Amino acid sequence: MNTNEKKEILKNLNEKEFRRDLIIPLLSKMGYIAPIEYHGTSEKGKDIVCFEYDKLNEQRFLSIVAKTGDFSGNVALDSGLMTIVHQVQQALDCPYEDLYNMRQVFINEVWVMTTGKIVSGAQESVINTLRKNNLDKQIKIIGNDRLVQLIDNFFSTYWNSSTETKESVIIQRDRLIYFVEMLLKENNVDKSTIESVKSSILYSDYSPSISKNINGLHISNVSPYNIELSDIDLEFDDYIVSKNYGVLKDLFNEAKKHLSYSFLDVEETIWEANKIMKITNPRDFAVEALSRLDGNYPFYNGSRHGDAADFIDNVNGLHEGIREVEIFKSFLKNKGKLELAQKLSKSIIKLLPEVEKIIENAKEDEVFFNYKSDEIGDKIILSFNNEEKGILFKSKYKRIDLKGYKRNKDGSLKSKKVIEDALYSFRDYLEQTLSYDEEKWSEEYEE
Question: For a designed S-S bond to 45, which of 90, 120, 402, 404 qualifies (C-beta 3.0 to 4.6 A apart)?
Answer without folding.
Answer: 90
